[in-house]
Design goal:
Blueprint (H helix, E strand, L loop, with lengths): L14 H11 L1 H10 L4 H41 L13 H16 L6 H7 L2 H6 L6 E3 L4 E2 L2 H6 L15 H19 L9 H15 L1 H10 L2 H5 L11
Antiparallel strand pairs: 1-2
Amino acid sequence: MTSPTPNVKNFGLNDDILDELEASLSADRLGKYLTATGGDRAEAVRLYTWNTAVSAAFYGPLQALEIALRNAMNRELARVYGPAWYDSAKAGLDSGCLARVDQTKQGLRKDKYPEDAPHVIASLSFGFWVSLLGRGGVIDRKTETKANYEMTLWRPALRHAFPHATNITRKKVHQPLDYLRTFRNRIAHHEPIFTRHLEKDYLRILETAAWIAPHKRAWIEAHSRVPEILETPPDDDNLKF
């Protein structure tokens, strides 16, 4: 016989519910929340719920930033090196990036999608785009030839992807975006983010989006639930995710 479903409008956390939730979440996962709440299981579950809600709220702004970044960078690289710039030797992509492009093409072939530029571009990860703003790694391991993204990507193309930033450099763009890449990955892997300075994370998203398109920042702010969730205490039993 199955247990009755608690009233979602007044969800109580009795011992039976806490036992089942702890088993389904795993002791290791819930352990981080138990540590934060001094071993109080009910408070740990509430904190886990809040962490889930705030992670879900961040998904939209991060998605908006990723798409804006991808489209802006692709536009400028295509202007200089052509639509399939990722295949151009002149772009000087390092071995790591070339491997990611190859994996992307393999995935498209496997799923029977065209290997044209629109599909390749749409399938490349956020981490790939952020890596193009780094220094560049090894191109040829035999000769130890290294990429120079400052000269092949940033100066001729990528600096133009951030037209609304002042006194911008490749390093100044790469640092916050790489930080947001790790933040995004923590959310994607369902990790705790409640110990982070989430207000600053949100501001970084807004600032970098504004470098690309100020109206995109305004659009994110108009629709984002992040401020609302950040103002909601974890012990609010009406919290929804």
